[in-house]
Amino acid sequence: MATSAIAATRAAASTLLSSSSYAARAARYPRHPRRHPTRIHASDDDKNLPKLYIPGDALGGESPELKAAQTLRRLFTHVAIRVVQSHLEGAGNDGGFAPQVTGRDGQVMCPDYDDLRRAMETIPLGDGDEWLDAFMKINSTVALRVIIARETYAKQFDYGLAKTYAGALVEKGNAQLMKRHASRSLSGGDGQE
User: Fold this and answer.
1) Degrees (nearest 5) of the Cα angle 10, 14, 16?
2) Distance of alpha carbon 10 from alpha carbon 143, whole angstroms
3) CB 92 within 8 A of CB 22
4) CATH of region 1-31+63-156
5) What count of other Cβ atoms lies within 10 Å of the Cβ of residue 29?
6) Which of 2, 98, 110, 128 is surrounded by the most beta carbons within 10 Å?
7) In angstroms, rounded to a whole number, what is the distance separating the alpha carbons of residues 86 and 145?
8) What is the pTM of this model?
9) Domain boundaries, the chain
10) Which residues 6+ apart lie within 8 Å of 126 measured at CB?
11) pLDDT tens digits, 55-98
């Protein structure tokens, strides 16, 4: 029973994610901005540098990569919740019938949507799994949709582009910080008292 419900939910999510209106919307609103940050390539000098030593207790004994993965899991859960919310609002239905989420008087007409919105407002996201576990007790059908959307998005996520963006943000931030520091130093206000 449970496996057939999961298989049916996967099929529904796959259909929604691959529908032509979803593809058309994705083409109109690309995931990535047209201007990409400068690509960061390791120079020959960078390749010869020793790997940084990270103290074992720096992150509670976990590697920075594991911490990043935990943060990505939380992000993917948030994205999946919003994807399912937009599906419940009628996005990606290829012009078919979409139940009105709210009536003219503002009353919620879709119980699944009402459950999801209430959970978004009252349950802390935590690491993502915590939110899903709590929401599973409220509405297991919609929770399964969120789980499948999260798994699908994790596969679609552009990890290479995220690495490029992170490198570019660090490089830009470091340059701005050094400029501000040099400006303060030259004006005699280096901030040390």
Assistant:
1) 120
2) 12
3) yes
4) 1.10.1200
5) 7
6) 128
7) 12
8) 0.66
9) 1-31+63-156, 160-187
10) 74
11) 877 788 888 899 999 999 999 999 999 999 988 887 665 555 55
Average pLDDT over residues 90-112: 62
CB atoms within 10 A of CB 39: 8
d(C-alpha 172, C-alpha 88), whole Å: 39
108 bridge partner residues: 102
Tell me the residue length of the chain: 193
The amino acid occupying position 99 is P
Q: What single-letter amino acid sits at 72?
A: L
Handedness of CA 170, 27, 116, 11 (dihedral sign): negative
φ and ψ of 131, to 5 deg: -65, -45
Give helix 140-156 / helix 129-136 axis angle, nearest 10°. 150
| Encoded amino acid at 105, one letter | D
**Token pair listed for 170:** 């660090």
